[in-house]
Automatic annotation (TrEMBL):
GO molecular function terms noted in the UniProt entry: diaminobutyrate-2-oxoglutarate transaminase activity; diaminobutyrate-pyruvate transaminase activity; pyridoxal phosphate binding
Pathway where this protein functions: Amine and polyamine biosynthesis; ectoine biosynthesis; L-ectoine from L-aspartate 4-semialdehyde: step 1/3
Cofactor(s) listed: pyridoxal 5'-phosphate
Protein name: Diaminobutyrate--2-oxoglutarate transaminase
Primary gene name: ectB
Taxonomy, superkingdom: Bacteria
Keyword field contains Transferase: yes
Upper classification of the organism: Bacteria, Bacillati, Bacillota, Bacilli, Bacillales
Organism: Alteribacter keqinensis
One Gene Ontology term from the biological process aspect of the record: ectoine biosynthetic process
PANTHER family: DIAMINOBUTYRATE--2-OXOGLUTARATE AMINOTRANSFERASE, DIAMINOBUTYRATE--2-OXOGLUTARATE TRANSAMINASE
Family: Belongs to the class-III pyridoxal-phosphate-dependent aminotransferase family.
Length: 419
């Protein structure tokens, strides 16, 4: 049998729904910012596991640490037991990430994935405040389990639950209204106690909305949100699952807003190697769970601790942040030039750092561009309520040559689609 033949998935009746049809290839190998399919065709990865592969595929130093660890019979599964790999990670995370940023947080392992950290954040916020509702924002995305879905501003995804989801109130995200209108609206809503509006336990926010269309909150807007939360005793949860770990240019996406969120959700690239790991950072005064109030079998994956510890080496040297800044400037310049040179795109450049894209109001155009790019050997995703944005999400370690090659393919794809 020809293993490149995708029909094998359809023939296995039990798995007919287990691959994405928009990337019609069977992948077999990956390194850095490249992937190969079973026919040996090479692809540039401008998707990076939706932000789970910020350091690229099979990053050599992490791979070596992992192989050594396995070779030496390092613990794989430990449930809540203390392990050396866990201790090493916690120490490194504190030394390299938290301390230099003057951040005092307790680190919790809520379960293996992004939605687990969001669920734990919603849960602790309710326990701490004794309140029920959570304010979320238009076009936000926080995961597919009931709680995370309830605070996701995405009706298509919410349909998966079949019934209305409760205890969540959606407010306008920064780009939904002009200037500071969304903030005024939010404050008036909170002040309107006479209508029986319940003051919420928390607000949950992505600083740049990955799935919702690369909608980008201004830093001053984020700062005002923090102030509003403080005024009302509402806990601020920043969901940095996609925007965190360097994706927007700094380790945490909110650093330049100068805020200290009550709760921070991390996953995707925190494991460093594409291995499942999630962290919930909580302020010490909110650490109010008794033992057993939040546990789970796969909390903390020791292989992911090993790679995560090694990944933090990147953050010990400011050169890494500098390189993200320099390369993301090239991405912005490229996207601006596309918008200028291809007026038929009616494009709008959105995003921050390595989390940028172009929104086009032309129905189906962004998806067609992504499809054409795939045929030409570049993997790219679309996002937004209408898939109106094609997003450039290469690993942060991509070199100039990779960027240039990718830009070339994207440009050719646009030319071909608009022709
Ligand atoms: N929050 C955000 C901002 C995300 O982008 C995602 C995943 N795309 C999640 C939460 C959920 O993460 P996971 O798919 O690992 O559950």
């Amino acid at each position: 049998r020809n293993m490149t033949d995708l029909t094998i998935f359809d023939e296995m009746e039990s798995s007919v729904r287990s691959y994405v049809r928009s990337f019609p290839a069977v992948f077999t190998k990956a390194s850095g910012y490249k992937l190969w399919d079973t026919e040996g065709k090479e692809y540039l990865d401008f998707f990076a596991g939706a932000g789970a592969l910020n350091y690229g595929h099979n990053e050599p130093r992490m791979k070596k640490k992992l192989i050594d660890y396995i070779q030496n019979d390092g613990i794989t599964h430990s449930l809540d037991k203390a392990t050396e790999a866990k201790a090493d990670f916690l120490k490194r995370f504190n030394d390299v990430i938290l301390k230099p940023r003057d951040m005092e947080y307790k680190v919790m392992f809520p379960g293996p994935t992004g939605t687990n950290t969001v669920e734990s954040a919603l849960k602790i916020a309710r326990k701490v405040t004794g309140r029920t509702d959570v304010i979320s924002f238009t076009r936000g995305f926080h995961g597919m389990t009931i709680g995370s879905l309830a605070v996701s501003g995405n009706s298509a995804k919410r349909k998966g639950a079949g019934v209305p989801l409760t205890n969540s109130v959606t407010m306008p995200f920064d780009n939904f209204m002009d200037e500071n209108e969304s903030l005024d609206y939010l404050e008036r809503f909170l002040e309107d106690n006479g209508s029986g509006v319940a003051i919420p336990a928390a607000m949950i926010l992505e600083t740049v909305q990955g799935e919702g269309g690369i909608n980008t909150a201004r830093f001053e807007w984020i700062k005002r949100i923090e102030e509003i939360c403080e005024n009302w005793g509402i806990l601020l949860i920043i969901d940095d699952v996609q925007a965190g770990v360097g994706r927007t240019g700094t380790f945490f996406s909110f650093e330049k807003a100068g805020i200290k969120p009550d709760i921070i959700c991390l996953s995707k690239s925190i494991g460093g190697y594409g291995l499942p790991l999630a962290l919930t950072l909580i302020k010490p005064e909110h650490d109010q769970w008794s033992p057993g109030e939040h546990n789970g079998t796969f909390r903390g994956n020791n292989h992911a601790f090993v790679t995560a510890t090694e990944s933090l080496t990147y953050w010990e040297d400011s050169a890494f942040e500098e390189s993200i800044k320099e390369k993301s400037g090239k991405i912005t310049a490229f996207l601006n030039s596309l918008v200028r040179r291809f007026p038929d795109l009616q494009g709008e450049v959105r995003g921050r750092g390595f989390m940028q894209g172009i929104a086009s109001p032309v129905e189906g155009l962004s998806s067609k561009i992504a499809e054409e790019a795939f045929n030409r050997g570049l993997i790219m995703e679309t996002s937004g309520g209408n898939d109106e944005v094609f997003k450039l999400f290469p690993p942060l370690i991509i070199d100039d040559q990779g960027l240039e090659e990718g830009f070339g393919i994207i440009e050719e794809s646009i030319k071909s689609v608009l022709a």
